[in-house]
Write a structure and sequence with these properties.
CATH superfamily: Spore Coat Polysaccharide Biosynthesis Protein SpsA, Chain A
Number of strands: 20
Helix content: 25-40%
Number of domains: 1
CATH architecture: Alpha-Beta Complex
Distance between the termini: 73 Å
Strand content: 15-25%
Low-confidence stretches: none
Strand order of the largest sheet: 2-20-12-15-11-3-6-7
Largest sheet: 8 strands, mixed
Length: 416
C-alpha cells in the first residue's frame, strides 16, 4: 500500500493524477507493472523536455565553416598504405568492434518485423539484411584473422523478434559469443498538454529515444564495460539499413588515428546543392551535421576554388569512435529534438482513442549532436555507388529496388 501512496504522491507532484485512476482500476499483476514503470521514469527530465516544447528557439548567431575531408578515391598510394597499416594493426589486435543500430521495424518497407529481418531480392534467391551485414563482418574476420565483436542495438519492441530470428538462422554462421544484443533506451510520450499517454496494455506509452540514445544505452546495459573487458579501443557505429556499409574499413580507422582524433565519419558528395540531406560542417568551431533546412540557400550553393560544393559532404551514418569518446559522450546529456506524432491511447473510461491529428510529443537525440563535444573529427569522402545503399522506403528513392541495383552492381564490379 505504501508503494501505491508513494507513486500517487509522485504523480500528483508532476500533474499526472489521471494515471492514478488507471492504477486503481487494474488487477494486481498489471498494477505492479504500471507502478514499476512509473518509478523508473525521470519526471524531472520529462518536465524539462515538455517545457522546452513551449520555448521559442532563440536563433543565435552561428559561425558556420566548411569542414576538412579526405577523398578516399584521391588518396595517394602512400597515404592508403599508411592508413591501412594503422587500421589493420588495431583490428588484428582485437581492439575493434562494430555496433549496428537495429531498433526499428520495417513498417515503411511494408515488412512486418525488425528491419534487419527484411529479405532483399538480390541474385534471385535473396538475402536478409542481417545476412548481408554478417557476410561483411565474416569477410573482415577472414582477412584479419580475428572475430570482431558485433553489438546489435534492438528496441523493446523488436528485441525478442531479433533474437529469435538470429538464433533460428544460427547467426548466419557468425560466432554467437561475439554477437551481443542490447536494448535502446525509451522515453515516455506526452500529449500536447504534457500528460502521459496510456496504451491498450495499460502501460505508459514510450518510444525509442533516437539514434543519439546509443551512447547512454551502451553504458546502461553494460556494453561499454564489456568492450573495455575485451580490450576494444575503436568502435564503428552504423545503421542496419545500409547494405553496402563497410563495417571494418582500415582507411577510415587509420586516417582517424593518424590525425590523432577520437571520432571519424564517412560522407558522400551531395548529388546537387539542394539535396535534402544533412551535411558535415564546423559550427562555432565544433564539428556538426547541419540539416538541409538550417543551411542558408546561398551557403548550400557555395563552391570552393576547385568548383566543389563547400558544404557538400553528406552524412551517411557511418561513424567511428574511440572507446574514450563513447565513454565521454555516454555521461553527457545530448540535446533532445521534439517531433509531434499521431499516437493512439486509452482514455480514463478505457476506450481506445485513435487521433486524426498529431497529438503527442516524441523526444529523440541524434548521434551527430555528440560531435559538438569535440574540437574536430576525421571525414572521409567515399563513392556513393560503393558504400551507400540504404533500404528505407517501400518504393522510389532508398527503396529495396534501388538498394538491390546498387548492391548487385557493386559485387559484379568486384568480380570483374
Amino acid at each position: 500500500m505504501g508503494e501505491n501512496r508513494d507513486v500517487e504522491t509522485l504523480l500528483k507532484k508532476y500533474n499526472q493524477e489521471h494515471i492514478i485512476q488507471f492504477i486503481n482500476k487494474l488487477d494486481n499483476g498489471k498494477k505492479v507493472d504500471l507502478i514499476n514503470q512509473i518509478q523508473n521514469i525521470d519526471f524531472n527530465q520529462l518536465t524539462e523536455l515538455y517545457e522546452n516544447t513551449k520555448r521559442k528557439v532563440e536563433i543565435k548567431e552561428n559561425k558556420i565553416e566548411s569542414i576538412q575531408y579526405l577523398d578516399k578515391s584521391k588518396l595517394t598510394y602512400e597515404e592508403k598504405e599508411q592508413f591501412d597499416k594503422i587500421g589493420e594493426r588495431v583490428i588484428k589486435n582485437g581492439q575493434y568492434a562494430v555496433v549496428t543500430m537495429a531498433g526499428g521495424q520495417g513498417t515503411r518497407l511494408g515488412h512486418d518485423g525488425p528491419k534487419g529481418t527484411f529479405k532483399l531480392d538480390v541474385y534471385g534467391k535473396g538475402k536478409y539484411i542481417f545476412e548481408i551485414l554478417t557476410e561483411n563482418l565474416k569477410e573482415a574476420n577472414k582477412k584479419y584473422g580475428v572475430i570482431i565483436p558485433w553489438y546489435i542495438m534492438t528496441s523493446k519492441e523488436n528485441h525478442e523478434a531479433t533474437k529469435s530470428f538470429l538464433e533460428k538462422n544460427n547467426y548466419f554462421g557468425y560466432n554467437k559469443n561475439n554477437v551481443i544484443l542490447f536494448k535502446q533506451g525509451e522515453l515516455p510520450l506526452l500529449d500536447l498538454n504534457g500528460k502521459l499517454l496510456v496504451g491498450k496494455d495499460y502501460r505508459v506509452k514510450e518510444a525509442s529515444d533516437g539514434n543519439g540514445g546509443v551512447f547512454s544505452s551502451l553504458r546502461s546495459t553494460g556494453m561499454i564495460a564489456d568492450m573495455k573487458e575485451r580490450g576494444i579501443k575503436w568502435i564503428f557505429i552504423g545503421g542496419v539499413d545500409n547494405v553496402l556499409a563497410k563495417l571494418a574499413d582500415t582507411i577510415l580507422l587509420g586516417m582517424t588515428i593518424d590525425k590523432d582524433l577520437q571520432i571519424g565519419s564517412k560522407s558522400v558528395v551531395k548529388a546537387n546543392p539542394h539535396e535534402r540531406v544533412g551535411v558535415f560542417c564546423k559550427m562555432n568551431k565544433h564539428p556538426k551535421v547541419i540539416e538541409y533546412t538550417e543551411l542558408p540557400k546561398k551557403m548550400a550553393e557555395e563552391v570552393d576554388s576547385n568548383g566543389e560544393l563547400r558544404y557538400g559532404e553528406s552524412n551517411i551514418a557511418c561513424h567511428l569512435f574511440s572507446i574514450d569518446a563513447i565513454d565521454k559522450i555516454s555521461k553527457e546529456v545530448l540535446i533532445y529534438h521534439t517531433a509531434v506524432k499521431k499516437n493512439s491511447y486509452i482514455n480514463e473510461e478505457g476506450k481506445e482513442i485513435i487521433p486524426d491529428e498529431p497529438n503527442a510529443y516524441k523526444f529523440e537525440a541524434f548521434i551527430f549532436d555528440a560531435f559538438d563535444l569535440f574540437d574536430n573529427m576525421a571525414v572521409l569522402r567515399v563513392k556513393r555507388e560503393d558504400e551507400f545503399a540504404p533500404v528505407k522506403n517501400k518504393e522510389g528513392v532508398d527503396s529495396p529496388k534501388t538498394a538491390k541495383e546498387l548492391y548487385e552492381k557493386f559485387w559484379n564490379r568486384q568480380k570483374s
